[in-house]
Design the sequence.
């Protein structure tokens, strides 16, 4: 009988890691509950056995078959103890401990854009692989690679590659390729479309876009600032800044021997759980088209991330000053996104709306014209804990003389 | 153009109104049951935390008890009552939101690993004893000698104002 219990226990413990990697879906909850109740019963039984083991020396039982049982039960309890130790050893962290996760999406779009080579059709989106590996108690590695579909094939991009040393909560130092900590979106969602409510990033932080430098190669210091209930944290980094192609960082070196720096401070107030307020500045010297420009980016954001409601708002001003002529331009961009996770259908539905705006003056020589006013209305449906369907209607106006474009966009995004 | 702005303002206003009118998910205490004690290894240099500090620990915003002692989070597997209490009172998230939160947290490189999942009280007790810096959530009736129970907002389990139940 006890042997059977032991086998059952061993099977349950062996199933444990599988649960850890992939929590059971809701429809298996009853089964899990039953199994957990069984574990509780087994624990009680083990406790009883242990109690008997303790009480045995003082006992007066002399019947032979009972004494056989007493010999067996302590042995099984001892084996159970070994099993607990084995599961404990398994649960302890081992180094390195590589974790691997992927993100992917498949998209469909149909627009009324005139003359576009492909106003509608399917699109494979990004296949995004993420690696995280603690190398010791205080050192961790993080990597992110994407596979991107293009007309002539696929490109592979190292999006992030970071090694980080944690001294404590107030100081963590890392080196590598980052998403630049300007504003909120760029460091909150990275390339995982499943993580974000909407189908695409806002235009101002679009991957491959130019408005802010999305990537950054260098070092970054980050941590909490002792501030009580204000919950302040900071990032400060120094790196190569924009490369020859200004949408890309200087992966292989600094193109103008002038380092960029970025500073970001944000607050997560203890009494307003879900709220984050922050401000960032970024300073660089850009060499573009044979001319040098000083770049100042200032940004602010306020977000409420609880999902019911969700509110994200971010603003950035990019100042470019040509070094030779002192000709200055200021470009502004913002987005406001709001959504609400409905309390019905097990909280799987989230309607949302986003307004985006970008203004670039005629004097802007680095970006050219990026003007945009766009409205997006959409609905996200979480078909499981790790997959979602999204549908959007977009209305976008770009250049003053270009007609507005309307479009329907669909996406399924998931993590695996 | 003015009409467009009016339309955008109307959409934003409607979303804001919906946010205000629709019911918020319950953030309070769970149904009846024993208090859930926060327990740590005997050598952990903490004996009292505020509820917001507990939340910071569980959200991975505080990851060290001291420079030399990282925090190791232990969370019971789904359906355990201790986990329900932690999700509802501290995280204020559903099971799905909790899973998504930790996927995102690791993806942002803000944490190297999610909380360790424990499947039984015994396993939890063994891990608390074996891992310096471990913190776990235990039915107050099952607290065993050798564990340090942390006060929350100045209260111990069993006291009327204790928040985790």
Sequence:
């Amino acid at each position: 009988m006890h042997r059977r219990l032991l086998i059952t226990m061993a099977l349950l413990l062996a199933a444990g890691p599988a649960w850890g990697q992939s929590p059971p879906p809701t429809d298996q909850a009853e089964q899990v509950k039953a199994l957990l109740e069984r574990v509780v019963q087994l624990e009680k039984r083990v406790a009883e056995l242990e109690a008997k083991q303790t009480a045995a020396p003082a006992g007066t039982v002399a019947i032979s078959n009972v004494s056989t049982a007493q010999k067996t039960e302590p042995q099984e309890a001892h084996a159970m103890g070994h099993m607990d130790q084995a599961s404990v050893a398994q649960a302890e962290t081992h180094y390195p401990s590589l974790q691997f996760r992927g993100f992917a999406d498949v998209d469909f779009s149909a627009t009324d854009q005139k003359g576009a080579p492909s106003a509608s059709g399917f699109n494979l989106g990004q296949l995004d692989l993420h690696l995280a590996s603690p190398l010791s108690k205080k050192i961790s590695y993080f990597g992110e690679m994407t596979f991107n579909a293009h007309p002539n094939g696929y490109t592979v991009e190292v999006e992030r590659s970071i090694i980080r040393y944690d001294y404590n909560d107030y100081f963590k130092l890392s080196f590598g390729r980052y998403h630049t900590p300007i504003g909120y979106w760029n460091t909150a969602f990275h390339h995982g479309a499943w993580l974000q409510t909407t189908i695409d990033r806002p235009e101002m932080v679009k991957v491959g876009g130019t408005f802010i430098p999305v990537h950054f190669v260098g070092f970054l210091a980050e941590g909490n600032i002792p501030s009580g209930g204000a919950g302040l944290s900071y990032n400060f980094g120094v790196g190569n800044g924009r490369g020859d192609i200004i949408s890309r960082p200087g992966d292989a070196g600094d193109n103008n021997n002038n380092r960029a720096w970025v500073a970001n401070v944000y607050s997560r107030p203890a009494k307003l759980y879900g709220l984050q307020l922050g401000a960032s500045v970024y300073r660089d010297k850009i060499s573009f088209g044979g001319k040098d420009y000083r770049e100042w980016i200032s940004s602010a954001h306020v977000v409420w991330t609880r999902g019911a409601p969700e509110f994200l708002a971010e603003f950035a001003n990019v100042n470019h000053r040509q070094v030779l002529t002192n000709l200055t331009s200021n470009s502004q961009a913002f987005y406001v996104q709001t959504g609400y996770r409905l309390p019905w259908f097990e909280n799987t539905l989230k309607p949302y709306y986003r307004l985006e705006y970008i203004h670039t003056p005629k004097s802007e020589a680095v970006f050219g014209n990026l003007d945009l006013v766009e409205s997006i209305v959409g609905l996200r449906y979480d078909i499981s804990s790790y997959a979602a369907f999204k549908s959007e209607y977009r209305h976008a106006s770009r250049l003053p003389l270009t007609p507005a474009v309307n479009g329907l966009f669909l996406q399924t995004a998931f993590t695996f | 153009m003015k009409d467009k702005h009016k339309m955008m303002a109307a959409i934003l206003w409607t979303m804001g109104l919906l946010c205000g009118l629709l019911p918020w998910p319950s953030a309070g205490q769970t149904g009846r049951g024993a208090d859930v004690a926060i327990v740590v290894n005997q050598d952990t240099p903490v004996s009292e935390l505020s509820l917001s500090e507990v939340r910071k620990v569980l959200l991975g915003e505080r990851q060290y008890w001291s420079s030399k002692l990282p925090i190791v989070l232990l969370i019971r597997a789904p359906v355990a009552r201790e986990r329900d209490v932690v999700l509802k009172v501290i995280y204020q998230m559903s099971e799905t939101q909790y899973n998504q939160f930790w996927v995102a947290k690791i993806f942002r490189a803000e944490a190297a690993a999610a909380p360790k999942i424990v499947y039984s009280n015994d396993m939890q007790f063994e891990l608390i004893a074996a891992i310096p810096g471990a913190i776990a959530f235990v039915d107050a009736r099952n607290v065993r000698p050798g564990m340090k129970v942390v006060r929350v907002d100045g209260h111990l389990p069993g006291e009327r104002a204790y928040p985790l139940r």
Residues 2-21 of chain B form the longest helix (20 residues). Chain B has one domain: 30-152. Residues 4 and 10 of chain B are 10 Å apart (CA to CA).
